[in-house]
């Protein structure tokens, strides 16, 4: 008999440790070991973990007895070499453990661990013939106990390697992980009503109505049909599904639809809820590009001959999306894959629906909040290069982790958005910048799009590193909105303020409402009044866990911390001086909503902020209602600034520009310029020129002046000088180290120690330690050390050196209790 070899595998596990772990391969698994496949291994005390093999070898580990691989989950690799290269790059560049990267990269269904709990899938119909004996045993147990973790299942089956059973059950949609169930099983569909085929002509419909009108008992049904028609269900020979709930709202009886369905007159059908999509179903054909868009498209193609990355700097409403659409189609024709990155999936439904309209099933939407099965489906389809499906992936930053085979183009829309950067948990990577690295592995091209590009991006374009293409005009030659300032200081003196509204803004709101136009108001604060303060002694209520003031929420009548979950009822008197003169400073979205009902009685106001969009679909529903003109004024936080495209918005109000400008952050001016220009850009997009009112104490502020003049270049040039003078990006690269400890005194000592070590290596490029703006969060004190290095310094060297200093620091036992969070390229 042939001698059997002893193999070992190096496995990475989803734990925050940089090294791979070595396991011994049982002989019977020798033939199955490959890099890129998943194995189940023991980790820690009696725990099983799923890991990925990164190396198969025969080197016996020294100094310890390695444990055995317990089970093999895959026949073929689930990650590609290119993906692994990207993981390594992220791990090095962002100084994150490889296990963290793996954790971020894999859909959670790929990472069954000891904590995973499973349940019966809500759609499982009980067809047990598809089950093996072992699978059946699990299902039986779940019928009794409803929820099991992997250890329990292992006990029931009497075997250790249960993952393959679980995996098969998940794939057969018999069971579901608890995490999946929690997030994803809100119904995505609703009941719609549509005219049956036989009645879809004017004559037949008329005949039907005649028949129904003659029979008194059919009155309800007649009404239902008439309501359906009133709501545009049948127009010019074309029928269209209408939400049943809306028909009922309009007075049609719900039961009559069932009768009509039975009689074959109307059809009730369950469909995805997306009224926006249906809105222009009729024009799902590609739009013809304007000459300006065509020129931009040609220039982008030309630019791609020489440059791998090109910036499309197109003003708000210039029609960048249509240009993207052409570029995507071009790649599809070549059989290539396209990755379309968006800052936040949840906030970009409008854009997603537009693209889905064009590309239908070829688009997969990949997002951590989506159904895990769908994510795995997209993953596998890409992995196997199945071009009939998901040739285009729309996703937030985590979509860079997908197993692309044949990537031709990456589009990063709204590339300036800070939400492309992940902060928690590690890896703290930037999706845009990672996409540019991913590009290189595939020889693909990257198009960055924005009306207000990030400083770094524009700088790269100016330097010739990126190509640059501009769209200076709005589509349809609509002028950019006219922007005015409302001088709060003056109005306060003249007593023309109505609470938080300037007389100037109120006038404009009245005019817009008279014209039946809609309004968007932007205030970057939720809640009612951000701060309460005692007028006598200045006391204000703080969070007991964090170093911040509590925000008053009127609806729920509580004071709430926006950093942790702490809340408390409001106080009647100042606990410090017992005065009852507590006044409120500042204002949030909730208060604005309240005040509007007093200033403009009868006006229909809706808030769009974290508090009103917690529920599934509430964001979409609010936008749908606004689109259907059921809302006159939409009041929101920065959620209202992101890419919204409504025809009837003629006025945008920015309620407190100063708050944005005064933030203690080197990006405060950049962010202010971007936010104000973006929200201003929602006004007057389609038919006539829009208006914007910015309320401020400081109308002459240079940022506001550049916003008014739509002068991105002016802003950019000026800001660039500041950045250069103060050693900030794009001239310097930054790395922030945040130290966290419960004991402020120990923290002080430790932070000094780390800073000193860093100074030995980097000299005056090290700043701090200092307290951040919020110096205590959830009972931990924070200190920040900043490192600024010249942008041409070697990334690798800097990080190696820094890592070495951190390791040295941790080798001192006194320091072991502190957490050091490294944030490369903080946003
Ligand atoms: N070629 C075209 N034909 C018809 N309509 C167009 C065309 N190009 C753009 N539009 C319309 O103009 C509006 C603005 O386009 P789009 O939303 O793509 O602008 P944008 O550049 O992405 O703006 P923003 O940066 O503000 O999001 C949209 O309603 C779009 O449907
Ligand atoms: Zn708190």
Automatic annotation (TrEMBL):
One Gene Ontology MF term: ATP binding
Cofactor: Zn(2+)
Coiled-coil ranges per UniProt: none
Binding site for Zn(2+) 2: 543, 546, 561, 564
EC code: 5.6.2.4
Domain (Helicase ATP-binding): residue spans on this chain: 301-471
Cofactor binding notes: Binds 2 zinc ions per subunit.
Matching Pfam families: DEAD, Helicase_C, PriA_3primeBD, PriA_C, Zn_ribbon_PriA
Keywords on record: ATP-binding, DNA replication, DNA-binding, Helicase, Hydrolase, Isomerase, Metal-binding, Nucleotide-binding, Primosome, Zinc
Catalytic activity: Couples ATP hydrolysis with the unwinding of duplex DNA by translocating in the 3'-5' direction; ATP + H2O = ADP + phosphate + H(+)
Xref: PROSITE patterns: HELICASE_ATP_BIND_1, HELICASE_CTER
GO biological process, one term: double-strand break repair
Record family assignment: Belongs to the helicase family. PriA subfamily.
Described function: Initiates the restart of stalled replication forks, which reloads the replicative helicase on sites other than the origin of replication. Recognizes and binds to abandoned replication forks and remodels them to uncover a helicase loading site. Promotes assembly of the primosome at these replication forks.
Subunit structure: Component of the replication restart primosome.
Protein name per its UniProtKB record: Replication restart protein PriA
Source species: Brumimicrobium glaciale
Name of the encoding gene: priA
